[in-house]
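quick one before i forget lol
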Amino acid sequence: MDHLVSMKQLSVEEMIALLDRAQNFSEYGARELPGKYTVSNLFFEPSTRTKTSFEVAERKLGLDVVPFEAGFSSTIKGETLYDTVKTFEAIGVDALVIRHSDVGYYEQLIGKTKVSIINGGDGAGQHPTQSLLDLFTIREEFGSFEGLNIVIAGDVSHSRVAKSNADALGKLGANVTFLCPEEWAGEYEAKHVWDEEILNSDVIMLLRVQHERHDDKMSFTKKEYHDQFGLTVERAKRMKKDAIIMHPAPFNRGVEIDDDLIESEQSRIFKQMENGVYVRMAVLELILNGRN
């Protein structure tokens, strides 16, 4: 595999192989990759978890990491993403992790550069490594995906996490239900009240309200959203005993989720972050070994 840009490109077998490799890293730690590879993380949108998780994964694998800060690069002079990537190719970088606001930015790159591209998030498009770490966390909890009831609740139409997980979880045999305000359903059929969903779900995956992607003012206040669509302490009391709470973070405390639930017994939010390192190590290993 030369690139990883979308969950749509992965078969069930490829997903399971990546999860198995991540599990191996989780249990036994990392060994440096043979040979010497150079990578860089090109983040044109803000990031804490994804960027630092990739950096930790890269260092655990013994990779050379070339620093990049968009605000101090030639992009502020008008350099295109294509030209930035071609520059990194020319100086000998093997792989780039890229986050960009343009959906499908990678389409202008693949086939036109020798550098391997790993998508760290493209606008409201895809976020494959976040999806893989979510899958890893779910499998770690339940052992498999077949027949699991999973609710993805929140800003669905703007969420690359929702789109990536919808593709992956469906292939793996899980039952996925979306829950959100009607205007945020996008291409998906969604429910607009919790009702029995809170009772029957094995996984409740909450999504951040992405205020920065809304062109006009929202039709409800944060409190109104929280009361109708958020995971409140009272709603959480109705969850199945073995159900888990997930969120890709960053989270708006008191909007998508009550503050008291973020580190509750059923929460796996910080476990997801830990698992992100193992998954990204697996992806980097697969991509870079494929260059030999």
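fyi The mean pLDDT is 94.
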